[in-house]
Amino acid sequence: MLLFALGFLLVILQPSAGQFPRVCANVQSLLSKECCPPWDGDGSPCGELSSRGSCQNILLSQAPLGPQFPFSGVDDREDWPSVFYNRTCRCEGNFMGFNCGECKFGFSGLNCTERQVKTRRNIFQLTASEKNKFLAYLNLAKNIPSQDYVIATGTYTQMNNGSNPMFRDINVYDLFVWMHYYASRDTLLGGSNVWRDIDFAHEAPGFLPWHRVFLLMWERQIQRITGDENFTIPYWDWRDAEDCEVCNDEYMGGRHPTDPNLLSPASIFSSWQVICTRSEEYNSQQALCSATSEGPIRRNPGNNDKSRTPRLPSSADVEFCLSLTQYESGPMDKMANYSFRNTLEGFADPQTAISNPAQSGLHNALHIYMNGSMSQVQGSANDPIFVLHHAFVDSIFERWLRRHRPMLEVYPAANAPIGHNRENYMVPFIPLYRNGEFFKPSRELGYDYEYLQEPALQSFQDFLTPYLQEARQIWAWLVGAAVFGGIVTAVLTGLVRACRKKTGGTSSEIQPLLIESEDYNNISYQSNF
Fold first, then answer.
1. Are strands 118-120 and 447-449 parallel, antiparallel or unpaired?
2. What is the rounded (10 degree) CA torsion for 436, 438, 439, 445?
3. What does the longest C-alpha to C-alpha distance in the chain come to?
4. pLDDT tens digits for range 297-356
5. How far apart are CA 217 and CA 208, in angstroms?
6. Where is the stretch described as Disordered (predicted)?
7. How far is 28 from 119, CA to CA, in rounded Å?
8. Where are the domains of the chain?
9. CATH code, residues 117-150+174-303+371-426+433-452
10. What is the dihedral of CA 342, 198, 304, 209, to 10 degrees?
């Protein structure tokens, strides 16, 4: 009954997420390289008549890239989205969307002026009704076509440079699976050649901001298709877990009684079909994933290669990762040492922060542990556990941001792998988002985590932590400055006293200002930390 009621909402609600806007997936838009659809509110492109935005040339970052991708002009994702469009809507104020018809994350209201902060909660803290609603929402998204977006089934060259559009419809959930695939797929070089060392969403600085945007868009999509504006993604806190606690029919699906690689028939997810899991097949055909069904979700948690992932991450692993002060380091890829990003992503040891791609820690450990659809990067979002997992990974990112309070400049502006510099637009999102725009606390983006809403004292301690760390680094200098200042003060005091003795006192005209007794108690003493 719940699913029937939710399905009815499709008639009156239109979802909006990312990838190719349906209204721009045509010959005219591709040949003109312009995607500036009208806003329904006033009928003008980008809502210009209502001062929501205007159609503008895309400003691409000119910062140099790292050496990981030695090609140019061979991949549609280079300088995203300029291969397809070089003019899009640039929205003003708190407006957002491919036609400036939405509010930025964290804002709501008719004119997008009302701030809001919603709370993501632990899935095990949800009531039975809330949990069942979440599962129903997931299933609804899997069965509702996206109204606003389509996916590309061919490259720009295969589309004859725009004169032969190749797009197709897709359901709301699979739209996000496809976007995750598209961002992480190999580069097709022609013939049977591919370049594998490329990923616009992983193995580089943009890993955390990219998935942050991905979850925000997914969250908003669910809100729109269900009409539940208060919906937030739950998270699974997997620290110190001995097994997959959500892998049962009450939550994300238990094990099949006769085939341990499949889900229990009692789970709604057992009927789901996966897409975009056959990367070698696409590569050999020099084709893109067309989002056709490729079989059921596969999952066999715990029966993974123990030499690579011996256990699920511990609380100690997370705490060590949070102690790392550098967001990024060295080559800024999976070989980076002492990098918070690389350690959280799982390519560096969670006890030493030294790169070790042969092992899988933290984020990567969960994917490998699931031993199925989640264990292959391009198709990992097929398993709905992906959403719970990445929500918790994002919460760790949030803890690091709150603890260290980095300036935007901490995020690399140049020399990161392709697509990962601060001002690069994230592939394959339209509307456009830059990596650096999401290197900020979650509350500025309209959401928080239940377990991070700590008492005021802890918040004050979190506030002081980065300053205390800075103080430790310059402690010797501070002590030296204090000693030097004391010596100078003593010398000057001695000189002043000597001068007073010579002049025999000070006239009233040059005496220091005196404090009237009635004003004495009004003085405010301030100290700078």
1. parallel
2. 140
3. 105
4. 999 999 999 999 999 999 999 999 999 999 999 999 999 999 999 999 999 999 999 999
5. 14
6. 287-313
7. 42
8. 117-150+174-303+371-426+433-452
9. 1.10.1280.10
10. 40
